Write the structure tokens for this entry.
Amino acid sequence: MKIFCVGRNYTEHAKELKNEVPAEPVIFLKPKSALLAPGAQFYYPEFTNELHYEAELVLYISKNGRYIPESQAHKYYDHITVGIDFTARDIQAELKKKGLPWEKAKAWDGSAVTGRLIRLTPDMLNAPLAFSLKINNVLVQQGSSSDMLFSFNRIIADISQYFTLNIGDLIYTGTPAGVGECVVGDVLAGYLGDEKLFEFEIN
């Protein structure tokens, strides 16, 4: 199982982090150990003092494939959820300043949270998908698939040019503007539309 992540897929988020808006999908990976197991507690990492949340729509790959045309990409995923790509922002900033890879800031154990999977219907695929994140019952982030620079199908087509997609792989499709810091004791809840897909506390 592989975890693919798309960076800078929302214009306003790229701007808030003072990054260039990309001309093609920015892809990075997290290891399997980054996925927080269902029911497991989330612990604030000891190595960071600036833990940031990044809520995202997450696709579940349902069919193996490589070199997938964009026109056929919709056949390769059948479920969606909302997840969090946690980032140790202070570590990322230092690594970026030195021009170094920043997996330590993004791909540590437990840094990828996913909610309950929802089966995609034709109606859902043909309409914008709204999602949001609340912390302590306060709305902190919201977005829509209609605001993505690169669509689900474009992302899958692009990834498959370099990596084989396998059943069970996850694709975090990017975060909208509004990322920010979270602390011990915060309760995070992710929503697809009005439906809550996860809720957990930072320990």
Summary: The chain has five helices and 14 strands. The longest helix spans residues 89-97. The first strand starts at residue 3 and ends at 7.
